[in-house]
Design a protein that fits this description.
eight-stranded mixed β-sheet; about 325 residues; 12 strands; alpha+beta
């Protein structure tokens, strides 16, 4: 797994990431002729976590604090957004991502209607190590529930999306889904291609279209500038109230409140989204403007009532509240 990660990040960044994140010993095996789907999933997740930190200064500062204290982050889940709409060469909606998750050993766990946002969220949980390999929370926005003008803007923005995966990449994913392992060289060639799926796949677009999207959906406006990048990565913590109070005293941009699930077993809060600069087309030239980027989240999970394991579910109300982190400048 670390050798795969080195191919993505380089040796120095890999060693640093291994000091940042908790990795179960079963995923740290000597190099063999084949790579398991769990090892591939873990390497990809760790690269995505590092990419998120590079875009969220508050999250990077928090993780640096953990490193100095000799503590490792428990990566609970990563979240990303998709659009259930024709996307050019890219499969529409969550299919662009789930075609990667399934061969890596993920299975659909729960569906969460996000009616206020006109979205649907779905959790994907790893079948081999559900508590130890980060889940994915993949949301789809439904443009058909918005105005005709909004729908037209969506088509102009994402209609020319490219597919980052080649036919050879898809063939390797089929092989992985069938065998649950890949030969080492095949895994080495595939993993950077998978990382490329978690980016923006559509070209530069008009500022006027961004403004039209923002007027009806902050979530679609975010997708327009950030694409399928991680919207947030989440740290599983033991005491979320203490953490929030500590980060607030330190002057970090922590959310004012903590979201609590209906069961009471899942509690979440987050840093507010980092501001990033993105380019738009305006009057025949490229214009740079600051927009909300990604953020870093915290979650506290309690055990199920039967005490058999952690409550790995999410909560639609929690998710709606957390999504607001990217809704304002």
């Amino acid at each position: 797994m670390s050798r795969l990660l080195s191919a993505l990040l380089g040796e120095g960044a890999t060693q640093e990431t291994l000091t940042q994140l908790q990795v179960m010993p079963a995923l740290l095996k000597p190099v063999r002729d084949t790579v398991s789907r769990a090892e591939l999933a873990q390497a990809l997740n760790m690269a995505l976590f590092r990419d998120l930190l590079a875009r969220v200064p508050a999250g990077a500062a928090y993780v640096a604090d953990c490193q100095r204290a000799g503590e490792r982050v428990v990566f609970d889940h990563g979240a990303l957004r998709t659009v259930a709409w024709p996307c050019g060469g890219l499969p529409p909606g969550e299919a662009a991502i789930t075609r990667v998750l399934r061969p890596l050993g993920y299975a659909h766990a729960e569906t969460y209607p996000l009616a206020r946002l006109k979205m649907t969220g779905r959790s994907w949980r790893h079948e081999d190590f559900p508590e130890d390999i980060a889940q994915f929370f993949v949301s789809e926005l439904h443009p058909e529930q918005f105005s005709p003008g909004f729908q037209a803007a969506v088509s102009r923005v994402i209609g020319a999306s490219r597919d980052p995966l080649s036919s050879a990449d898809l063939a390797l994913l089929e092989q992985l889904a069938r065998d649950k392992v890949l030969p080492w060289n095949a895994a080495l060639s595939l993993v950077p291609r998978l990382l490329g799926c978690f980016e923006r796949q559509h070209p530069l677009f008009a500022l006027a279209d961004y403004q039209a999207l923002l007027a009806e959906s902050a979530e679609m406006a975010w997708i327009a500038t950030e694409g399928n990048a991680f919207n947030h990565a989440t740290d599983r913590v033991a005491d979320i109230e203490l953490l929030a109070d500590t980060q607030r005293v330190m002057g970090r941009p922590i959310k004012d409140s903590i979201e609590t699930s209906a069961s009471g077993r899942v509690r979440q809060t987050a840093f507010r989204a980092a501001q990033v600069e993105r380019q738009f087309l305006h009057e025949g030239r490229a214009l740079t403007q600051a927009v909300p980027g990604s953020f870093y989240e915290f979650i506290q999970r309690e055990r199920e009532d039967d005490q058999q394991g952690l409550d790995l579910r999410f909560d639609a109300a929690n998710a709606t509240g957390i999504f607001k982190m990217t809704s304002a400048a």
